[in-house]
Specification:
- It contains eight helices and no strands.
- With about 280 residues, the chain is mainly α.
- α7 (about 195-235) crosses α8 (about 245-270).
- The two termini are about 35 Å apart.
């Protein structure tokens, strides 16, 4: 029975993730363009024809129309089913990593965080910006999430004030630390080394995960960004002074901290006999 429940949870997570991924495609396209994410309903950006329900089936819909608009035959980017697939995998991963021991509302919160991170990462790749409307709303959602945790009977070992302090401290550490790094980079390089949105994204991550996992997120992001940056320059895919977005690396770092942060931090503390 337990295995059946686990498989059922995983199936629900995959279907929900693919459906949310379809909405994230709308967010990724419309938010940078300052368009409503609710109206008008999904439509072809070329012929403006409203899509039929069968065209909006997550992942499968793209293959059913063979990667082209059903009405004007304009090619539809393969990125649409990719985003839906990635979201489905992330939600499935949450069900695997936290299912069985974590309240459903908490798992839904983790899925919400991952959705925010994925949207911001792709937008940053596209536009080299991290829209305030997403980072700020994500920060508020993170504080609300941590405050909500005290309502879970399984998690009543911490008080509301402790959870709120954890979230606010994480947000403050995130924005201050990235602002300091941004300032030092500007002084060292004589130009902007980091976008203004990166500290806000770090604050959002801190609000969701707390300051300890935030620091782990930044460490992973810096290491991965440096490694891929050096590799891209060596392969002549990136100029030595060419800018590249840091938001996606922060999103990857936060994802790693969410899934592996407790194990990594526990191992680190045990090395020094602090666990």
């Amino acid at each position: 029975m337990e295995n059946i429940e686990s498989l059922g949870l995983q199936l629900i997570a995959i279907v929900l993730g693919a459906s949310v991924g379809s909405f994230l495609n709308v967010v990724i396209y419309r938010v940078p363009a300052e368009l409503s994410i609710l109206f008008p309903p999904s439509r072809c950006p070329t012929c403006l024809k409203q899509l039929a329900p069968k065209d909006n089936i997550p992942i499968l819909g793209w293959f059913l129309i063979k990667g082209k608009c059903r009405y004007c035959h304009t090619p539809v980017s393969w990125r649409y089913p990719l985003i839906e697939g990635i979201t489905a995998i992330l939600f499935w991963w949450v069900s695997i990593a936290f299912g069985g021991s974590t309240p459903v509302l908490v798992m839904l919160g983790y899925c919400l965080l991952l959705s925010w991170l994925l949207s911001l990462a792709v937008i940053d790749l596209d536009t080299m910006t991290l829209p305030n409307v997403l980072t700020q709303s994500g920060l508020v959602a993170g504080v609300a999430f941590q405050s909500m945790m005290v309502l879970m009977p399984e998690l009543k070992h911490t008080s509301w004030s402790d959870r709120l302090l954890l979230s606010i401290t994480g947000a403050v550490v995130g924005i201050w630390l990235l602002d300091i790094m941004r300032f030092l980079g500007r002084v060292w390089l004589g130009k902007e080394a980091m976008g203004a949105g990166d500290p806000k994204l770090a604050a959002m991550i801190g609000a969701w995960l707390g300051w300890e996992k935030l620091l782990l997120s930044i460490l992973v992001a810096a290491a991965l960004g440096s490694l891929l940056g050096v590799l891209a320059i060596a392969l002549q895919k990136l100029g030595k002074k060419q800018e590249f977005p840091f938001g996606p690396f922060l999103a990857i770092g936060a994802t790693c901290a969410l899934f592996f942060g407790d194990v990594i931090l526990s191992t680190y503390l045990s090395w020094f006999g602090l666990n």
